[in-house]
Design goal:
Chains A, B, C, D: GO terms for molecular function: adenosylhomocysteinase activity. Chains A, B, C, D: It holds the Pfam family AdoHcyase_NAD. Chains A, B, C, D: This is Adenosylhomocysteinase. 4 copies of one chain form a homotetramer. With about 475 residues, chain A is α/β, with parallel strands linked by helices. In chain A, about 40% of the residues lie in helices and about 15% in strands. Chain A is built from 18 helices and 15 strands. The first copy, chain A, has an 8-stranded mixed β-sheet, covered by helices on one side. The first copy, chain A, has a 7-stranded parallel β-sheet with strand order 3-2-1-4-5-6-15, sandwiched between helices. In chain A, β10, α14 and β11 form a beta-alpha-beta unit. In chain A, α3 packs across α5, α3 packs across α6 and α10 crosses α11. The longest helix of chain A is centred in the middle third of the chain and has 24 residues. Chain A is globular and about 65 Å long. Chain A starts with a helix and ends in a 14-residue tail after the last helix. Chains A and D meet through α10, α12, β9, α17 and α18 of A and α10, α12, β9, α17 and α18 of D.
Chain lengths: ~475, ~475, ~475, ~475
């Protein structure tokens, strides 16, 4: 889920995933680092909040498995051969029911795993407990301190008698730590798989600087991720995020969406479908022309700011909604951000003495002007769908499956296939990821006849897209 | 909000409105009836949970006012003349931020009000406190006992030196109580305004039996209510209810909706728009033909039950989803009810020893078959949108405005205009209700020219619809 | 097809149905009245353009039959009993492939038929020939004179040794003729079935005046017709009418639709779906509020007239688009009428010396202002879908089936069931009409269980709707 | 308009564009080559059907100009500098109102043009006459023989005292002729602009073989063309093509669309929006997964072939619909092709003795099985929208503007910028093309602030997309 990672990396102090926010309260005040815990098999090779929550976490994992049947099917198909036999994977990702399904899939395929969290707030403690109970060496809890964060990563990497040969990272912190503290580990590492925008950016910089010493897979830019995450995920979550926070009625609402990329397209499709009247702002003429053809008015923000009921940013840019815009909004206007930068809405400009902030619900602030006008600001301008709604497990499954395949590919690649560079997954593997998700919809692929394959100049089993397709 | 009322009347023991369910927990264990409370002006003419919550309740009322501008505008237009001056209204409705806006509008128009709750669970305690603080004689709290319930109603009706001349009822319990205990009160009553299906049904029965001794207005069947509540309200809330409970992804889901009346049409429109594949079951060939023309397959439930991901009932019928259907559903199938009967899904049939119930979240049960198959049952088969999502304030505003106008009409009607019978609001008033809601959308009505009005045989100010229009 | 009839009645001199307009040119100049023609069985009991075209007409009828399976199925179900045995029906309708299927169904059910055209331009000559060849006494051709028109009607009614006992009329001209010339015929007539708005209006006037001497069925206002014709028929034909005349691209077009009744709703749904940005004008607050909830801006025509690309009237009113509006439209603006009055657009105001008219295609005029601005006027302001597109046969099938059932009902009704008044078809028959059309969609109705029927207080076989439902 | 060109190149003997097909009949039988014609200025430097039709053609050009305001605006912006001054362009394209607007734009920018038709049937004679009257050396008429075709091309290239320095080609025939007959001409040629799939393919082959001796611009693969042509053009034309040929009702129709690329996506969006139930077949798992998420069932053709009402191919593949499929279709099933190959439907397999073909309308054949079953085949399996509907002028404008800009770029490029290779237009020019089309929608682009541009690492004036974007 592309734009998440970046934000999580940025605001480690702030993000609270909704599911966790539901408030399974901190049982006690003792730091997990100081607790002695043992799972039912007698192992203490983990550090989680409370191993006793394992059963509850197991149920959450089982629920997630139902929407991640691609991974389950991968377990089945690859079980005999154990394509990750011998793999020692050190991982650093969010620790949620969904990533637990990934981790347990890697184990089922033969890997040994040690895992930490890429975000100090995003760990589902029950899930971490369930993983620990199942024998995974997991070091993570919700509400880690900065020091805890690096301690957990260190515990994963630095273990006597065990040396990682694969890295699965989300945000680049683990990779960074190994570079800094244990550069020798890279001698055994066959490859890095990285999911986030930030992490991938760091890898390209390393590569440019000639410092990347192992092959790396850029999962973030894989076709399946790009084509599905932004468009469909935002189409699913924009309505949900708005309803949960404001109970707003969509019918007849005047909305302006800033940016008509994939994220904007997803938001606009959902809002229009539910009866909102949507305007678009764009800087790019090609996206603007698409917006026109799709039946949206393309305007400058100033032209409509006085009359709209909802403002949504989807640009990746900064200061798209300025204090001047906020000053001109009408009473009760809702403002939120679906893009990937925390600065799309200039929230800082609202922290001035003449404005009063009133927290009316979790993630919902009324900012009140001296004349009584209220602007409804969601999630303090951070990502709405990450903060206030959930992401469909099925979409996360696409990314998780891609990560698993990337690990298998790098781990099993013949010497020399991959150099010390950043790679995209081969198109054929993208297509394999997609095909693993079709049974969820009971979708039946058609197969080319020999004659047709010849006519099209394609292999019957794909890849069907050119390599430059994205 | 049509189908709510009936259900609330039916399952007084069960319904929990979401907003309240958020769990502002019971502060103490003393019954409000035993507390001595005084508002800031020294009055004790009320009985609520905790008068100190008034400020918080006031804010909720103010938020609601923003989406109920029709009532606010009614206050302004009718303020000079005070059309309810002298009216003494005894009311029994849900006590929420939205009904508070109605009650305070009635007061602003000149009425004196005494109020109780029509449901033992639906009272927002803070709102009741705010009403009490503002001087309304309100007797209601969340979690009343059956005895409390009737005590509160009695306190409204039975007061020395004050006798009601109007009744506003939702469900018919207040009306019933007056009939039973204080029949003499009807000598002064100018009329009853009733909102719910159940209450209206009771009134028609009284009328048939020749026992209705005052005029009554049936608000439930007013055009504005019928044309807006079911269709739009369900279109707004079906996605919300499903997401909040299950986080289900809509894209590509196979859904079957039982019933293609207004409720079904609203659900189907929203689900199709978000990428679900929707099938319909219908008993009525006219609705079935509409479903066909709208692009849905019309099937028998048995034909699709094995393959669907979600089952939604919208029929008003009973046992639409039977144990046999439930037995044949696939693993993880979600089952919920948007109709108005608690018995659309035969939930009782699931309470058998061989099935295990597991409560996984609030309002979400997994019913587990011996072979491990889980069916996800929402709100135990009660109304999904009432139980698990919110209803747009704007839609409630339409009904509330109609109630206010019905009270004004009955209170001011010249002797003899209304007999001892049940009436629908005159079409022109329906149109007035609608017109009061247009400014929210910045909608501009066109006015007929004299020439056009003559051509059409209509008055320039309406009514525009024939009386039989609904 | 409701609004057709009225228009056809009004502009007998003008309407040209598209199919005919394709221009199968007039073979010769001899009036059919002066020709001697015999069909292959030796009969001369008809008067058509050219009996030799029968084969081509038969094929058109066969094509129509494929979308009128309800009538075919009615033939089959009722064949044994011949419910129209003994019926002598005199009819006056459009004579097209679709009405031919109706006429031949009536014959198959036992009736004898004599038929004339209700419009001097709408007859498909080939179809008339096919009917004549099949033995129907048909008197009609395309391009009749006024005198021909009444001559044909007279030939149907006035025949030695044959006296009609049923009337099927569309527009009321046949009924009028019988009233005027052969009032005694009514002694044998068991009933009149009338389809058009105009004809029904005349019948109600007769009834009011106490001059209606037989029962009459108002087919125009039957539920199936009202619920399907306007909404779905316009949804199907608005895009078609615009494309065939102007090849306009819909994506991103600014459109204003005047009137948001069923016709307007159908047009707006289709245009929005194809990417147009649609504004609405309305006089009725209830329809205006629906437009808002459906995501359309409600404006006054003046507010948007300068910027829109397309103006569509759907009001039933007159002078909705005035010369003043036309003066303010931008260059290339397209103007057309989907309502039922020819006067919705004030076309007369455009016939002034300073404006130049240029016919650019069939049914398309450019009206050119002195400054060179062109307004694109379609069908000279007459009904677009009647003039420039086709009406789906399936929709016509619904009306035709209703006509057939109305004839059967009136013909077989026991003495006294129907008085000398205008009736609507019983709800149950409406539902039967609908059910006959479901197999086309392979739609499967659900049947109530005994228990459910009892719970709902309904008969298992319907009717399911209350009588006031429309 | 991408897939057109290929087909036109393939079936020079067959294609008839609808507009022309309207049948402005061949005035006489004398070949234009043998006529002596002079325009009103006395020039005979052209060869067209009938110079007297110029006025009518001029009107068609003027109508087209209204939807091609990007070219008109290009004329205005570039008029002072005349960026094509000195350019001598030899062109070979369809000769229609739309290409006429392009040709006259090139002239207005300073170029001299000589023009022939790339297809023997697609020339609009009136338009050719109007061009000739305006002084363009045009050699083209509708219904050329193969010999005429090459004669016309030759007349353009081979003229004493005039030598082309630019080529604009559509299909590669002109380029091929110059290579074959006048290779020396390439010494003066600064570049080739090619629009069609076929032509571009030939250029890449030349380039591979080292035989391309001048720079060439591949307009076919420009972003604006790819992103707009297929998706939007097919969304606009699928309904139109089906209605004009069959008058089919869309509501409730069961449709299968083979292929969910851009063409399929456009078709499906329109059909679903109008109430059809759409199934998809796909060979590519990524497109299949998109179809699922968009709410379509993904099936094998065999699974649904017996029940569907309409089959549409959009694959680019061959024999997608086989005789076996055709044998299993139900009566009245409509079959048509929106892809780019004539062989998607195996029409050849239908030309067997046991099947009867019946031409029921222009472009519509009934193929009749021995048991009476009819399959409705449109355009004999050729491209439906090219054969039976029109293409929006606005979409053609995008391509035409790109062609004009490509010519300007190549003609003015400094020595050495372009080698003897095939190029795509720089991204910035794509964006310029898009921006020229925004005023048609009254769309207002937002401009980046300096600060934002810096933050994003972009130039304020674009390009905004990475080069690999397509």
């Amino acid at each position: 889920y592309g734009h998440c990672s970046l934000v999580l990396a940025h605001d480690r102090q702030e993000v609270k995933l909704t599911r966790n926010a539901a408030g399974r309260s901190s049982d006690d005040e003792v730091s997990p680092r100081e607790k002695q815990q043992t799972n039912s098999k007698g192992s203490s090779n983990f550090c989680v909040k409370n191993i006793k929550q394992a059963e509850f976490g197991r149920r959450e994992i089982e629920i997630a498995e139902q929407d991640m049947s691609a991974l389950i099917s991968l377990r089945k198909r690859a079980q005999g051969e154990k394509p990750l036999a011998g793999a020692k994977i050190v991982g650093c990702t969010h620790i949620t029911a969904q990533t637990a399904v990934l981790i347990e899939t890697l184990c089922a395929l033969g890997a040994q795993c040690r895992w930490s969290a890429c975000n100090i707030y995003s760990t589902q403690n029950e899930v971490a407990a369930a993983l620990a109970e199942a024998g995974v060496a997991v070091f993570a809890w919700k509400g880690e301190s900065e020091d805890d964060f690096w301690w957990c990563i260190d515990r994963c990497v630095n273990m006597d008698g065990w040396q990682a040969n694969m890295i699965l990272d989300d945000g680049g912190d683990l990779t960074h730590w190994v570079y800094k503290k244990y550069p020798n580990v890279f001698k055994k590492i066959r490859g890095i798989v990285e999911e986030s925008v930030t992490g991938v950016h760091r890898l390209y910089q390393l590569s440019k600087a000639g410092k990347l010493c192992v092959p790396a897979m850029n999962v973030n830019d894989s076709v399946t991720k790009q084509k599905f995450d932004n468009l469909y995920c935002c189409r699913e979550s924009i309505l949900d995020g708005l309803k949960r926070t404001t109970d707003v009625m969509f019918g007849g609402k005047q909305v302006v969406v800033c940016g008509y990329g994939e994220v904007g397209k997803g938001c606009c499709a959902a809002l229009k479908a539910l009866g909102a009247i949507v305007n678009i702002t764009e800087i790019d003429p090609i996206c603007a022309l698409q917006a026109c053809m799709d039946g949206f008015r393309v305007v400058k923000l100033n032209e409509v700011i006085r009359q709209v009921d909802v403002v949504i940013t989807c640009t990746g840019n900064k200061n798209v909604v300025t204090r001047e815009h906020l000053d001109r909004m009408k009473n009760s206007c809702i403002v939120c951000n679906m893009g990937h930068s925390n600065t799309e809405i200039d929230v800082t400009s609202l922290r001035t003495p003449e404005l009063t902030w009133e927290r009316v619900r979790s993630q919902v602030d009324h900012v009140i002007w001296p004349d009584g006008k209220r602007v409804v600001l969601l999630a303090e301008g951070r990502l709405l769908n990450l903060s206030c709604s959930t992401v469909p497990t099925f979409v996360l499954s696409i990314t998780a499956t891609t990560q698993a395949l990337a690990l298998i590919e790098l781990y099993n690649a013949p010497e020399g296939r991959y150099k010390q560079d950043v790679y995209l997954l081969p198109k054929k593997m993208d297509e394999y990821v997609a095909s693993l998700h079709l049974p969820s919809f009971d979708a039946h692929l058609t197969e080319l006849t020999d004659d047709q394959a010849k006519y099209l100049g394609l292999n019957k089993n794909g890849p069907f897209k050119p390599n430059y397709y994205r």
